[in-house]
Amino acid sequence: MGAEGWCLLLCLAFSGAANVAERQWQAVDVVLDCFLMEEGGHHGGFASSENMVKAVLVLRQVPVPDDGSLEGLTDFQVDTLTKDNSLITFEASVNLVQIPQAEALLHADCSGKEVTCEISRYFLQARPEATVEMAAWFITNVQVSGGGPGVSMVMKTLEDAENETVLHPTLKLPLSPQGTVRTAVEFQVTTQTPSLNFLLGSTASLHCGYSVAPGLDVTSVEWRLQHKGSGRLVYHWTMGQGQAKREGATLEPEQLLTAGDASLTLPSLTLQDEGAYICQITTSLFRAQQVIQLYIQASPKVRLSLLNAAPPATLICNVAGYYPLDVSVTWTREEQGGSPAPVSGASLSSLRQSPAGTYSISSSLTVEPGSAGATYTCQVTHVSLEEPLGVHAWVAPPVAEQKSALGVLLASILFVLTLLFLGLQRRQATSPRSPKTSRHSG
Questions:
Q1: What is the domain range of residue 326?
Q2: What is the CATH number of the domain that holds 314?
Q3: What is the pLDDT of residue 370?
Q4: Kind of pairing between the strands at 374-381 and 328-334
Q5: Do 19 and 62 fall within a single domain?
Q6: Same domain, 272 and 315
Q7: Could you tell me if 232 and 277 lie in one domain?
Q8: Three-class SS of residue 169?
Q9: Do 284 and 317 reside in the same domain of the chain?
Q10: Last residue of a domain, one of 187, 209, 243
């Protein structure tokens, strides 16, 4: 069965999953379509060479949570893939490390997400004394779209004693009887959240975790910030000692050493904290990293005021303290008993920026309240708002129009009273008079 067929089988099983009361685990094969960067070695980042060939990575027997969708799922078979000599297949054992985000990789196709996978040669910082001549190392960088996890894995090739003389034609590495390059993952660095949004002044936690094979120790952890072409050190930990270069930045040493958790906490966020954070973890042999993009947001404050009451009246909508830059300001007008209608003709002021880096802008609108007055609404849309923010103001008609309307009302009342009075007089004039009686004295 090929990679596409195996993924289809997995999706069918996943779509028919049954709910289970308890969280259970099952070891499954995770298959990823990758590209092998044939030229250029590096120390933990994506390769720069454009010479890429298609490859397949099979992570063998990875423990993943089973919600009932994995029942009946069989192990991946490489026989079909290896018939194509141009397709390089890597088999990777994960017995030495943990892959905590494997379920996201397993269900990516079913969830409509894309997985980017690049494999390239990796050169050790310090070559171990008992290194097998035919051994080689590769690093795999995996990224799931849509805010999914990122994983970097360092893999060491394994010898095949039964098939030592068969080498891959281009890699010159031993092949298994099935024609695959067998490896074992010895080090991985993971982030659950490659992209984060936080409000100005809040506290951010940037996740970075790792797992190493037995016998390897973490020697240092470094967090750096890159933004707009410049970089700076945020936090550095080595040999049990941590040093914060950004005030308040912390990580938990106990979690770092016992749980493989090198997450960084940043309190009281400012706009200077925005940028790409690089979590780099170093062992005696390996170095790998993850990049977490942190975006800062500040919600706008909106105030509506009447510039002048005399015609032509002008409303000013002041939008202050927002970040990032993009903001939308629209107007609507509503008469009594009617529906809101869009209003055009508003003008924007020049952009203003505060010392803290947030932005402000004003929108002005000449209003036409009519003879009965109207309600005007200034509506602001910004990425930091879950829904648009609107402020309202009722604009009364001009005084002259009010007097004119009052005069018409009074005239109408007098006219009606006059008609009633004349009608009453006519009724009295046309009604018959009662006969008079004579009085006689006896």
A1: 301-395
A2: 2.60.40.10
A3: 85
A4: antiparallel
A5: yes
A6: no
A7: yes
A8: coil
A9: no
A10: 187
Block means of pLDDT (10 residues each) for the chain, 442 residues, are 46 44 77 83 47 90 82 71 70 93 82 90 73 78 92 90 70 86 96 95 97 93 94 93 95 92 97 97 94 97 86 91 97 92 94 96 93 93 96 82 52 62 63 49 40
Tokens 């990777």 — which residue? 92
Residue 275 within any structural domain of the chain: yes
Shared domain for 202 and 331, answered yes or no, is: no
Q: Compute the residue count for the chain.
A: 442
DSSP secondary structure string, 369-421? -TTT-EEEEEEEE-TT-SS-EEEEEEEPPPHHHHHHHHHHHHHHHHHHHHHHH
Looking at the fold, whether 291 and 315 belong to one and the same domain comes out as no
Indicate if 173 and 316 belong to the same structural domain. no
Please, what is the end-to-end C-alpha distance for the chain in angstroms?
A: 141
Dihedral sign (CA 242, 247, 249, 252): positive
Domain count, the chain: 3
d(C-alpha 327, C-alpha 388), whole Å:
11
Dist. CA 398–CA 403, nearest whole Å: 9
| pLDDT score recorded for residue 426 | 65
pLDDT at 152: 96
Element (H, E) at 33: strand 24-42
Task: Report how many helices (DSSP H) and strands (DSSP E) the chain contains, helices first.
Answer: 5, 25
227 and 202 both lie in a single domain: yes
Closest CA to 29 of 117, 119, 90: 90
Contact 208, 281 (CB under 8 A): yes
> pLDDT value at position 6?
45
